[in-house]
Design brief:
- A hairpin with a 2-residue loop joins strand 3 and strand 4.
- This protein is α+β, with helices and mostly antiparallel strands.
- The mean pLDDT is 88.
Length: 116
């Protein structure tokens, strides 16, 4: 899923479960490793981190669609300064079509990661 404009972009991809074998713990079994890259005028960086539960990941496309519909406010991803010493906020300005396209990209990317 890619969201971006001339000033910056955020790309996210679900990669794998944190633990390849399910242990029977519904919490630990459902951590999703996400790969991402961020581009700003100040630079580019990437990450790979088990940062979303499957249920949370499924909410991303719904949130994007709600932003496109104007029913929720969009906020920039705040890294709190943890990903880059010079940039703590990325706010690409994208239109409704780009939001819907990103949601349409995210859903099939999650298809191979059912809740365990």
């Amino acid at each position: 899923m890619l969201l971006g404009d001339q000033a910056g972009s955020v790309e996210l991809s679900p990669l794998q479960y944190q633990f390849s074998a399910a242990s029977g713990d519904p919490y630990d079994d459902n951590w999703l490793v996400v790969g991402g890259s961020v581009t700003t005028p100040e630079g580019t960086w990437a990450f790979t981190d088990p940062c979303l539960l499957i249920g949370e990941a499924r909410q991303v496309s719904a949130w994007l669609r709600a932003v496109a519909a104007g029913t929720v406010a969009a906020t920039g991803p705040d890294t709190g300064g943890s990903l880059s010493p010079d940039t703590s906020r990325v706010e690409p300005q994208v239109g409704i079509a780009a939001l819907l396209h990103a949601a349409d990209q995210w859903d099939p990317a999650l298809a191979s990661f059912p809740a365990r």
